[in-house]
Design brief:
The complex is a heterotrimer. Chain A is an all-alpha fold. Helix content of chain A is 87%, strand content 0%. Chain A is built from seven helices and no strands. Chain A is flat and about 65 Å long. The termini of chain B are far apart. Chain B is flat. Chain C is globular, with a radius of gyration of 18 Å. In chain C, strand 7 (169-173), helix 7 and strand 8 form a beta-alpha-beta unit. Classes of the chains: A mainly alpha, B mainly alpha, C alpha/beta.
């Protein structure tokens, strides 16, 4: 096999990214557990993990840059390294989202316990599932699996919108619970962003495996529709 | 740090993939073993042997060069010793005196040689170069080329006396008289093989890239051969001509039955003509001391003239090349 | 102005070696097209079929059609005419060793009978300017011999020589492979500028070079053309696995 050193470097890059992935996913799970169990020590562990995630992000970007400069990768290899760089950024933001959730949890702990009409753990498990699936599709270079992640995003978006509506209602009708509701809202938003990041990761995997850029599918459709309309009005 | 169980399994599986063995260079310690010491000594002995054999080879080469140059120097020195005192203005301007009379020169022989060589070159050089061009550029690999090469080689080996007799039968007898023309033809034919083979060799040495460059410009093949390939090889071709010239300049045997020699002045092509080698031959075989002295002088002059002619051509052509002839 | 090249069912042999098999290709006018492939794949042979230089080998044979512009080069004209319209630059710079720089550039014209001094001067200057060599040699045009220049300069001299006869197509067989990175970069910039006026076909071992200069790239393998597509597609997402194996270096 030729270019064996290069292929080894690619494997090492992949492993590093998977290490980072593990940490990011773990961070989200810990943050949600902190919310469920009202466990502040969990929040601490999230913050600790954040440091490692940031370090790994820099290392992965540096390794990818070196490979681009030194090995002149082409085709599949080039798309792989590009995807790694993007997935790297997404995972770091997942870590940030986990940190946001932890911040909100710490905030909530100072307040009274409140029953809110929003199923944070369910959203969290869906978002986690999306992250896990997208990373699985990366490991296995499975574009089909990545596509299933794209369809799950709508469900999470819907849940977030519903949470928004019901929490606003709570804030209007039970204003003493407003602080808790606000924090819960922010947690819901953070989880919705985690789902978005998982979607982006899946899109990057599809780009790597198939060479297809499937991003912003909806906005492209909207643009095409708009152009169609302006074309009609012009003629 | 504890990772989610699903990831641990994945990472371990990835690590189990085979790595390159011996990917890094092992650094040995600084101790020198006994085996290594022995190796070092062997290197020293080998190095000394190499220096010695190098010196010996250089010495042999110098010796061989001396052995080659020495006869030339010796001959030249001897000629100078024997013939220099007989050189005089008269030698270069007067024709031979009758037998018994002292004095005279070889002016007619010098002129005669020049005319014969001019005729010979006019025949030998164009035919030889054309033959060489054909062999190298147009006929490569053909049966005709093989035949031509074979003929040239055979012609090269024909003894000069045989050449003289052949031209005698072919030209002198039908014409009914000896002539400078027949002498020139004999010399010319003797020049052909050398010129032809050298031209072929020199043309073959022109790199194919030069030919291709010319062809790729849309230059027809014949033009490319003449204007580019031949021009590139011209220094070598000229050397070949010089070699042939120098060889036939000293030929005596073919001239005996063709040019025949002439005690008087002659510039016509259809009459017998004198030549330096011929004259030297006649004088050397004669019983007269005077003529012997003239023969030595003639031999010296012959060699000097050949050297001068070759140097002149070299000078003229090298100047032309440096100028970037357009 | 350049013209397009249309190749149909081209087959070429060296004796019994079937060097090119059923090549079909449309090379666009006024573009640079790169041909890549491993050693011995036939890309050089293909390019030499485009200006009938392949025939200079006594055991060479060609079947099929090559149309340059509207001319079938194997039927409608003889090799010498074609080579005036299709210029070639070789892998190793090969200026004529006995000629000055001026004479080298003018060689194609002089050897075909042009002798008007003024016209030749003009063409030599224009060709040397077009090949980015004018400034470096304008003072020594007739004094320096072609062979006294550096490698990169010699190659640009050969390009100028090819341009002087005003071809429509310029074939370049690994033109920068014998040159250092700076000379290579100069030649690549040159190709980029030249493609506005000529159709350029460049054979190269160096894929990064193909990526830098060519709009379309063809991948040759074992005498066949495997894939021919836009260069950025070939190098980011080729359709054929063999192409991908080659360009990622995973051959064998």
């Amino acid at each position: 096999m030729t270019r064996i050193r290069f292929q080894q470097s690619l494997e090492e890059l992949k492993e590093k990214l998977l290490e980072m992935a593990g940490l990011s996913e773990q961070a989200v799970q810990r943050a949600i557990e902190a919310y469920r169990e009202h466990d502040l020590s969990m929040c601490e562990r999230v913050y600790q993990g954040e440091i490692t995630i940031n370090r790994l992000e820099r290392e992965i970007d540096q390794a990818a840059l070196d490979l681009l400069a030194m090995e002149q990768p082409m085709a599949r290899d080039l798309r792989f390294i590009l995807s790694v760089i993007k997935i790297n950024a997404e995972l770091e933001r997942v870590g940030n989202a986990a940190k946001t959730i932890s911040d909100r949890v710490r905030n909530i702990e100072k307040m009274a316990v409140a029953e809110l009409p929003v199923n944070i753990p369910k959203m969290a498990s869906m978002a986690s599932e999306m992250v896990r699936k997208s990373l699985q599709s990366f490991i296995e270079a499975d574009a089909e699996l990545a596509r299933t992640v794209l369809t799950m995003d709508d469900a999470v978006d819907a849940m977030n919108k519903a949470a928004f509506k019901s929490l606003i209602k709570v804030m209007e009708e039970q204003s003493q619970l407003a602080p808790q509701a606000l924090n819960a809202l922010m947690i819901s938003r953070a989880l919705e962003r985690v789902a978005d990041h998982a979607t982006n990761i899946a899109e990057d995997v599809i780009f790597w495996v198939l060479g297809d850029d499937v991003r912003h599918h909806k906005s492209l459709l909207r643009e095409a529709a708009q152009q169609g309309k302006s074309g009609e009005s012009a003629s | 740090m504890p990772l989610p169980a699903c990831w641990c399994g994945r990472l371990r599986a990835e690590s189990r993939r085979p790595r390159i063995k011996n990917a890094g260079i092992q650094e040995k310690g600084l101790r020198i073993s006994a085996g290594e010491k022995k190796l070092k000594n062997e290197h020293k002995i080998r190095a000394k042997f190499r220096a010695l054999s190098d010196g010996a080879a250089t010495g042999l080469a110098v010796l061989a060069t001396i052995l080659v140059v020495a006869p030339l120097v010796a001959i030249f020195a001897y000629l100078v010793y024997k013939g220099a005192n007989s050189l005089s203005w008269a030698f270069f301007t007067e024709v031979p005196r009758p037998v018994g009379v002292v004095g005279g020169g070889m002016a007619n022989a010098i002129l005669g040689s020049s005319i014969l060589l001019a005729v010979g070159s006019l025949i030998g050089v164009p035919v030889g170069i054309s033959g060489g061009i054909f062999l190298a550029e147009f006929g490569r690999g053909t049966k005709l080329a093989h035949a031509v090469r074979f003929t040239a080689d055979v012609l090269n080996g024909v003894p000069s006396i045989v050449m003289g007799i052949a031209i005698y039968s072919l030209i002198v007898v039908p014409q009914g008289h000896f002539s400078a023309f027949s002498g020139g033809v004999a010399l010319g034919i003797m020049m052909i093989p050398t010129v032809c083979r050298t031209t072929e060799e020199m043309l073959l040495m022109v790199p194919n890239a030069v030919r291709e460059a010319a062809l790729a410009l849309g230059v027809p093949n014949w033009r490319s051969v003449l204007a580019i390939t031949v021009k590139t090889a011209s220094p070598g071709i000229i050397t070949g001509c010089m070699l042939a010239f120098a060889r036939v300049a000293g030929e005596t045997a073919p001239l005996i039955f063709t040019a025949f020699g002439n005690v008087g002045w002659n510039t016509r092509l259809d009459e017998p003509i004198s030549a330096l080698p011929l004259q030297i031959y006649v004088y050397a075989l004669s019983p007269y001391d005077d003529w012997h002295r003239l023969a030595w002088a003639g031999a010296l002059v012959l060699i000097v003239l050949i050297v001068l002619a070759v140097s002149l051509v070299r000078y003229v052509t090298s100047r032309g090349v440096l100028k970037g002839a357009s | 102005m350049g013209v397009g090249i249309e190749v149909t069912t081209l087959n070429a042999w060296y004796g019994s070696n079937h060097a090119l098999q059923d090549i079909n290709l449309n090379i666009p006018a006024n573009h640079a097209t790169a041909l890549i492939g491993p050693s011995g794949c036939g890309k050089s042979t293909f390019v030499r079929c485009l200006n009938r230089m392949h025939e200079t080998n006594p055991v060479a044979r060609v079947t099929g059609t090559v149309r340059i512009g509207d001319l079938d080069i194997y039927k409608d004209c003889n090799p010498v005419e074609i080579r005036r319209r299709v210029g070639m630059v070789f892998q190793r710079p090969n200026p004529f060793p006995t000629m000055s720089i001026y004479d080298n550039v003018a060689a194609g014209l002089k050897l075909n009978g042009y002798s008007n001094r003024r016209v030749l001067d003009e063409i030599v200057e224009r060709s040397l300017k077009n090949s980015a060599l004018w400034d470096e040699v304008k003072d020594d045009l007739k004094k320096k011999s072609g062979a006294s220049l550096s490698g990169g300069q010699q190659q640009r001299l050969c390009i100028a020589r090819a341009l002087a006869v005003d071809p429509e197509v310029l074939l370049m067989d690994e033109p920068a492979s014998a040159l250092d990175p700076v000379s290579t970069a100069k030649i690549e910039d040159l190709i980029f500028q030249l493609k506005a006026q000529y159709t350029i076909v460049i054979v190269t071992h160096n894929m990064q070079q193909a990526a830098r200069v060519a709009g379309k790239t063809g991948f040759f393998l074992n005498g066949r053309m495997v894939e021919f597509d836009a260069t950025d597609k070939i190098f980011t997402n080729p359709s054929d696995k063999r192409t991908e194996d080659y360009i990622t270096g995973r051959f064998g």
